[in-house]
Amino acid sequence: MQRLLVFVVFSLVAAAVRAQLTISGGGAVVQESIGRSVTLTCTYSLTNTYTLREIKWYSLMDGDRESVLVYYPGQSVYTYGLYRNRASLVNTDAAAQVASLRLSNLQFSDNGTYECVVGASSSGSGAPQEASAEIELVALVAPNDPVIDDDFNSVTGNLTLTCTAYTGNPAAFLTWNRDGSPISADRADNITSWRGYLDAQSTISVTANSAGSSTFECVAQHPAFTSAQRASVTLGSPSVSAVSINPSPAPGQSLVELDDVILTCMTQEGIVPQPTYEWRHDAGSLPTSAQAYRNELKIFSAQVEDSGIYTCTASNSFGSDTGDASILITERVDNTPEGQTGTPAGTVVGIVIAVLAVVAVIVVVGFVCWRRRQSDELKIPPDSPEEPEAVVSTEPEEEKDEEKLNLMEKKEEEPEEVKVETQGEGHAEVAKKPDPDQTA
Fold first, then answer.
1. Contact (CB, 8 A) for 174 and 257
2. CB 179 within 8 A of CB 215
C-alpha cells in the first residue's frame, strides 16, 4: 500500500512538471508549390512560473539534424545555411506563445521533415522544460503533361500502352479511361529521377483487333495542377490528310533546282499502333538525293529530274491510307538583265573596296616609314660638333681642284694659332704656335 501511494504521488508530480510546457502542431503535413512562401505552424503553452527560454527549428534530412533557426527572447533571430534570409518566425512576442516558422521562396531542396523545439525556464526551483513537434513539408513540383507510348506485337496482336508524367513531387496520380469508362491499370510505378524528382508510370495491355477502334485516355492528377491533365490515343487505321511541301511554292509557281525540299505525310495524331510510312516517286523508286525518315522525305539539292508525283502510304495492322503531292522543279536562271555584260555590279564594288583598302595600307606604311626616317635625321648625338652644311659649287671641276691646292699651300705656310686662356682676365689670348725649326 505504501509503495502504491508513493507511485501515485510521483506520477502526479511528474504530470505537473510536464504540464509546465505543452506544444502542438506535430504530425501535420504541409504542402506548397516551389517559389512561394509557406508557414509551418507550431504553438506552445506555458503555465505557472515558467517563461520562454528559446525557440529552435531543425531540418531532419537523411537522419541528420541541421539547424534552420534559433531565437532567444530579447535577441535577434539567427538563421543558418540555405535558410539564411529565407527563414523567420511568424511572431516573436512571448505572450502570443507562437513558434511558427515561415519559409520564403520555397525550394525543392526544402522538401522533408522539420522539428520545432521550445525550451522554458522556471523562475523558481523548477527544472528547465523542453518540448518538440515534427512537421512534414512537401515542396510541390508540378510534373510535365502525361505522354503515352505504345508497343505493338504484330505476332500476338498485343498492344501495350505506357503513360508517363515526368519530374513531379510528389509523383502524379494516373488513371485510365477506355471510350470514356474507367479501366484498371496493369502496373503502376513511381520512379525516382537523378535529381530526386518522381516520374509516375502506368501501363495497360489490350488485344488489338479489327473489330472496332477504341480511344484510351490517361488522366494525370497532382496537387500543383489546377485541373487534371490528359493524353489520349486511338486504336485504329491511320488516315492521311495531306502531304505538305516545304518550301511551299506560291500558286502557279515552281521550285528551283539546288533547293532543299521537305515533304511531310500528315496523319491524325494519337493513332496506335504507330503507322509506318513508305514513299514513292512517280510510282517508282526515290531519287538518290532523297532520304526518308518516318513521315518526312527530304530531297537535298533538288534537280529538274526530281520533279513529279510523290506518294506517301501510312499503314498499321488495322489498315492503310495514301496521299500524294506534285512538285515541279525548274532550272535556276541567271538574274543578270539582258544586254548587261562584264562583272556584276556587286563584284565590281567588292573589287573597288579591296583596292582602296590595299592603297590605304600602303599609304599608312609609307607615312610611318617617312616619319621614322625624319626622326632619325633630326637626332644629333650629344657632345658632337655640328657638321657644316654642304655648299654646292657651280665652278668647273678644274678650277675647284686648283683652288684646293692653293688653300693647302697657304695653310702650310701659316703658323698654327694656340688658344691660351688666362684665368685672371676672364678672356682668351691667341698666340702663334712656335715653329719647331725656329726653336731648334
1. no
2. yes
| pTM, full prediction | 0.63
CB atoms within 10 A of CB 185: 16
Which of 264, 247, 265, 244 lies closest to 256 in space, CA to CA?
247
Q: Give the DSSP per-residue string, 307-331.
A: -EEEEEEEEETTEEEEEEEEE-EEP
207: three-class secondary structure by DSSP: strand
Checking DSSP bridges between strand 147-153 and strand 38-40, what pairing results, if any?
Answer: unpaired
Contact between residue 51 and residue 123 where contact means Cβ atoms under 8 Å apart:
yes
Nearest in space to 202 (alpha carbons), one of 166, 239, 242: 166
Non-local (6+) Cβ contacts of 103 within 8 A are 37, 38, 39, 40, 83, 86, 87, 110, 137
How far is it, in rounded angstroms, from Cα 395 to Cα 401? 10
The sign one gets for the Cα dihedral 102, 107, 113, 115 is negative
Distance CA 90, CA 98 (A): 8
The number of beta carbons lying within 10 Å of the beta carbon of residue 215 is: 14
Encode pLDDT of 403-430 as tens digits. 656 666 555 555 544 444 444 444 444 4
- Look up residue 317 and give its three cell numbers: 495492322
The CA-atom distances, in angstroms, between 412 and each of 38, 89, 198, 339, 435 are: 117, 116, 117, 90, 12
d(CA 184, CA 222): 19
Q: Indicate whether 2 pLDDT > 70.
A: no
Report yes or no: 263 and 286 within 8 Å, Cβ to Cβ: no
In tens, the pLDDT along 238-286 reads: 999 999 999 888 777 789 988 899 999 999 889 998 899 999 999 999 9
Residue type, 152: F
